[in-house]
Every structure is written in structure tokens, then in C-alpha cells.
Amino acid sequence: MKKAPFEAAPEGKLLNSGERRKLILMGVLVLLVVVAFVYVKVQDSNRKASELNEIAASDDEISVQLVVPELDPDILAGKILDAREGDRVLLQRETLDPLLEYTGALHAGHFSALGILPLDAESQAAIAGAPEEHRGAAFLARGWIDDMDQRVGPEGRREHHGRLRLEDESYCHFVVRDLPDGLIIDDFVRLDGLFLKLFRSEAESGWVEGPLLVGAELVDSWPRPAEIDKAELLSKLAQITDDTLDGGLTGLGGETFDAQWLLMDDILRGGYEDMDWEQAATLEDGNLVNIMTNGHAWRGAPFKIPIARNMDLWTSAPGENPARVDKITMGWIGSWTWTNNKSAVLHYVMPYDAEELRGARLISARGFFVKNFAYETRDGNLRVAPFFVLTHLEEFIPPADNTIKYIGVGVCSLAGAIIVLIYFGLRRDKRRAAEFQADLVRRRRARRERAQAKELD
Fold first, then answer.
1. For labelling, which of 226, 271, 443, 456 has a CA lying 20 to 30 Å from the CA of 390?
2. Which CATH architecture has domain 73-220?
3. Do the first three CATH levels of 73-220 and 230-395 match, i.e. the same topology?
4. DSSP 230-292
5. Where is 40: in which H helix or E strand?
6. pLDDT digit string (tens) for 275-291?
7. Nearest C-alpha neighbor of 19 from the set 440, 425, 442
8. What mean pLDDT value characterizes the chain?
9. Highest averaged pLDDT of the listed ranges 11-20, 63-72, 307-316, 378-387
10. Which of 7-11, 21-25, 103-107, 247-251 has the least mean pLDDT?
């Protein structure tokens, strides 16, 4: 007997066994396509996250908790005499010694946590108006050594007493335990200390008065001129020599140190805000080779650094410095377009805190070339890379590529459309099969009726 072209599904079923197998197979195939798409997307996301974490994970994170010892206010309260001029030439050991002991354990971080303020005209006026309210308060003073002598304190410990002439031509007095080596009169220093009392001392021009600060040490510092001496900057740049692999290693000290801080001070003062950076050269592969082979000709030249890879970035407190910045950013930049055999990376410093860019994958920058700098790689080899002082550093976020997303949406939409078409196609086939079966039933019934009619005849 010839097989019927349409087979009706069993009663109560939408599909017959063959149709169900076909639909299940197509559904599995569609599911595999969707799973493959999701897998590719997840792998791509994990790859990007891994690349971003390479920078942050390059060094072990060290968490340091700063503990600031507490000063007992009863040590100073009501025990210091400085209301009259005669009282201001006296130094009482009962209040000086505890303060010297307390400040001996402090460093710059502690003073910062104590809310240190610059000893400027406003601070001096506040102290002079209400000295009792400022006992033990932290102040930062910078100036030239105007007078200094060494004394012996309790238990034979050395003390250094003296006077600073500040940059505004006012004065402050100091008592510290330590001095920089070779410090002499007229050297410029920084003092972080706690206010003890108003004090008077005799200078060549007569009696001078100012706050007395007690601290741990004096630190070498630099006076800050009203404006940057461009001639001095150019002179320092001209004296720099590039590092070479055959033994010419000068590092980042000396003239390089002076030049980089003059540049950073000028940047902080806005010395390059009006500069037309569109006219600056771009640090492409050819210019990088020129810098590496003839650094002297490019010393101090401005460059635009196009989109490149953020190899590493960190911030630090540089300590006392000519630009008087609290935080600087240093790091390494590399580019896949620097294909020469000289260097594929550069080293930089910037006078800003750019910690927020630590996790950036791509960055662009602007800055000035200073020198070719020798460094040691992780495997112990010595290499040379350009060293820049940057004025600007920013993250580059490439526009989102939605191609894969669109392909995925298209695949899912097509899969859904196919399933819908299959569903309605099978319903149509079932209806046609049912109609065909009903037609067969009618034909068989008609044949039986004709056969019965013939028998009756």
C-alpha cells in the first residue's frame, strides 16, 4: 500500500514523532548558536578585564596605616609666658623638652595628618592675635637660615636653635634636633613644626620677633621665584647628557633633576596653557628614532603622544621639591606603532595626581622630551628609553564596536523567526493532513455506499 504523503499526528498531539525530532534538532542547533555567541562575548569581556588588571597587578599593593601619636594638651596649656616682650626672650625647658620629644617621632606624613598650615602672613597674624589658641598647632615654614647655634639639651642630646628669614621677609624661630649635612647660614630650608610661643631674638638690624616652632629636623629646600627663569631652564636642558648602553649612565639626577622640576614648576604655573599643541611634533616611530639617535637636538622639544598603551602608572609623594607639589605621577607608555629597534616604550613624570588613570588601558599625552634614560628590565637587561615631563595625560576610550552585538541580535531574531515559521508550518501541515485523512474517510464511505447500492440492485 502506498504511504500517505501527510501523516496526521496522534490524537491529542500537535506533532507526529518525525516532526518532533526535526523541531528538537533545529531547536538544539539554534541553542548552540546562542551559547556560542554568549561564550565569545564572555571571553572577550574577560580578556579586556585581564588586560586592564595587568597594570594594577604588576606590583603588590601595600597598605600602610599612619598612626599619629596624641599630644597631651596639659603639657602646654597655661604654662607658657609670651604676653610681654620680656617673656618672649625666655625658653622654658618644662614645655620645650616634651614638645621636642613628641616631634622627634613625627615625619611629613604625620604633620600632614595634623593639618599643617603654611606660616604665611595670615597665619602669623592669627598667632600674634591669640597665641594660646595655637599652642601645639602644626605649621610649615620655608626660609633662609638667618641665625643658628648648637646647644646641649637634657641627657647631652644635641639641639639646634635658630632663626629663619621667610620669603615674605618676616621671621620665625626654631628648635630642632637634626640638620642637613653641611648646612650653613643663608641656606634655604623647610621646617615642619609645632608652635610653642612667640619669641624674640637679636639680629644685626635689632630685635626681631616671630613664632617659635619646634620640630624634628630642617630639610633642604628651594626658594620659589616669582616666575620661572626660561634662560636657566634652557641652560639646564643644554647641560643634560643622554644615557647610553656602553657606560654613559647619568640617571635622573643633577641637571636632569633641576630641568625636570623647572619644567614641572612652569607647568603648574600655567606656563604652557596658551601653547598651540597642534604645531607640536607627533611622537610617531620616525621621531622616536630621531630622539633616540640624536637626543641633544630634541632636548626640551614638545611632543604629542598619540593613543598608546598604559604600561604602568603610579603616584607618590616626592618629598620637598622645587615645585612644591605634594603628589606626582610617574609611569611607562608603550605603543604597537613604535616598531623600531631602538625603543617601544617611554618613561614619564607629571606634576599632578593621576591615580584615577591607573586602570586605564589606552591613554594619550602631551609633554616635553628631557633625555634618553637607561633602565633595567625585569629580566636584568639594560635598555634605554626616552624620558618625558608631561603636561597632560588622559584616557582614551574607543567607541563601542556593536558589530558582534548586532550579529547576535540578528542570529537570535532569525532563530526566533525560524521557530515561529516551523511552528505555523507544522500547524498548517497538520491541518492539511487532517483534511486529507477526512477526505480519505469520505471516499471510503462513498465507495462502501456505492458497493452496498450495487448489492441491493
1. 226
2. Beta Barrel (2.40)
3. yes
4. HHHHHHHHHH-----TTS---TT-HHHHHHHHHHHHHHHTTTTTT--GGGSEE--HHHHHHHH
5. helix 17-56
6. 999 999 999 999 999 99
7. 425
8. 85
9. 307-316
10. 7-11
d(C-alpha 259, C-alpha 389), whole Å = 10
| Placement of cell 657606560 in the chain | 247
- Decide yes or no: CATH 2.40.50.140 for domain 230-395: yes
Cα Rg of the chain, angstroms: 41
Q: Indicate the pLDDT class of residue 53, thresholds 50, 70 and 90.
A: very low
Average pLDDT over residues 175-197: 96
**Euclidean distance between CA atoms 286 and 298, whole angstroms:** 13
Distance CA(253)–CA(241), nearest Å, equals 11
CA distance 145 to 147: 6
Query: Where in the chain are the domains?
Result: 16-53+405-437, 73-220, 230-395
Burial class (CB in 10 A: 0-12, 13-18, 19+), 51: exposed
Find, among 390, 387, 388, the residue nearest to 372 by Cα: 387
Q: Residue 182: left (phi > 0), alpha (psi -120 to 50), or beta?
A: left
pLDDT for res 49: 46
Asked whether 366 and 350 are in contact (CB, 8 A), the reply is no
Specify the higher pLDDT residue, 294 or 33: 294
Give yes or no for residue 426 having a pLDDT over 70. no
Q: Which residues pair with 363 in a beta bridge?
A: 308, 395
Rounded CA-CA distance 240/238 in Å is 6
